[in-house]
Amino acid sequence: MADEVSPPPATEVASIATPINLILIALFMILAYYRLTPKTAPTLPTPPAPTVFKTFTPPDLEPYNGRNNMPVYLAVRGRVFDVTPGRNFYGPGGPYANFAGRDASRGLACGSFDEDMLTKDLNAPLDTLSDLGDEEMEALRGWEERFSEKYLVVGKLVPVDSVEAKDATLVEKL
Ligand code: HEM
């Protein structure tokens, strides 16, 4: 019969495996692979170490003088500030290095970083500053305000022979 449908030529059947089709199949497989493989959990940035409020005696505070890669702390009227971000000021060789690891109250009040502004005997009672005048106490309040805005309070300074110091030692031993 003349109008019988003839099968497609062999070249037409083979044309499904053209280079472009092979590339598309490969792309599809790559995409499918990436969609289906499980993603690794996103890693969160590690939070900074929590600040633990501690009780320091002057000898406890002394090692925080910026030497041996230690943080830098100083005390102002019983409050211990972490002044590590100001290491340039208080670290070894800095202009105010004398204050590091010490009670800096008198020096700040009197506007002097001389050695004799520091309490020599670390086991002695804390400096009461009772001999200072209004102007000096006002200057000290100014420094405290500045430090409170700029630095973290990490603890309090208590004298060696105080009940608080003994309590703190007991808590540490628990
Ligand atoms: C010779 C005179 C002095 C000059 C030229 C001077 C200069 C400076 C300068 C430029 C700064 C940096 C300020 C900033 O960037 O925030 C600074 C900070 C400081 N100064 Fe002086 N200073 C002098 C005397 C003193 C004295 C006598 C004291 C004693 C109490 C003192 C205590 C401080 C302290 C504690 C800081 C650092 C405050 C912080 O941690 O932010 N300065 N000084």
UniProtKB/TrEMBL annotation:
<keyword id="KW-0479">Metal-binding</keyword>
<keyword id="KW-0472">Membrane</keyword>
<dbReference type="GO" id="GO:0046872">
    <property type="term" value="F:metal ion binding"/>
</dbReference>
<protein>
    <submittedName>
        <fullName>Cytochrome b5</fullName>
    </submittedName>
</protein>
<keyword id="KW-0349">Heme</keyword>
<dbReference type="GO" id="GO:0016020">
    <property type="term" value="C:membrane"/>
</dbReference>
<keyword id="KW-1133">Transmembrane helix</keyword>
<dbReference type="GO" id="GO:0005783">
    <property type="term" value="C:endoplasmic reticulum"/>
</dbReference>
<dbReference type="GO" id="GO:0020037">
    <property type="term" value="F:heme binding"/>
</dbReference>
<keyword id="KW-0812">Transmembrane</keyword>
<keyword id="KW-0408">Iron</keyword>
<dbReference type="Pfam" id="PF00173">
    <property type="entry name" value="Cyt-b5"/>
</dbReference>
<feature type="domain" description="Cytochrome b5 heme-binding">
    <location>
        <begin position="56"/>
        <end position="158"/>
    </location>
</feature>
<dbReference type="InterPro" id="IPR001199">
    <property type="entry name" value="Cyt_B5-like_heme/steroid-bd"/>
</dbReference>
<comment type="similarity">
    <text>Belongs to the cytochrome b5 family. MAPR subfamily.</text>
</comment>
<feature type="transmembrane region" description="Helical">
    <location>
        <begin position="13"/>
        <end position="34"/>
    </location>
</feature>
<dbReference type="InterPro" id="IPR050577">
    <property type="entry name" value="MAPR/NEUFC/NENF-like"/>
</dbReference>
<keyword id="KW-0256">Endoplasmic reticulum</keyword>
<dbReference type="InterPro" id="IPR036400">
    <property type="entry name" value="Cyt_B5-like_heme/steroid_sf"/>
</dbReference>
